[in-house]
Design goal:
It is a single chain. The protein is of the alpha+beta class and 86 residues long. The chain has a single domain, classed as Beta-grasp domain (Ubiquitin-like (UB roll), Roll). It contains three helices and five strands, in the order E-H-E-H-H-E-E-E.
Length: 86
């Protein structure tokens, strides 16, 4: 398993109560499922996570399948909720 840092931004950071978290996972799908489960599938965290843009090692995940995005030791996953501003 790869040791990966998940960075939470804006509303997701607020819902998590922390700015980042280290998890062990081989794919993006596994990492996200693990934290979703840890916070509860019906939680505010899970709701916000479901609408986040995802960037893995500075590359947007876009519409790629999360189970096909392989993580490596030291990977950084940025989880960016939608935001408004000007």
């Amino acid at each position: 398993m790869a040791r990966v840092t998940l960075r939470y931004w804006a509303a997701l950071r607020s819902a998590a109560g922390v700015a980042e978290q280290v998890v062990e996972a081989d794919t993006l799908a596994t990492a996200l499922a693990d934290v979703r489960s840890a916070y509860g599938a019906d939680s505010r965290f899970a709701a916000v996570l479901g609408i986040c843009a995802v960037v893995v090692d500075e590359t947007p995940a876009g519409s790629r399948r999360h189970d096909e995005i392989v993580l490596r030791d030291g990977s950084i996953v940025e989880l960016l909720p939608p935001f408004a501003g000007g």
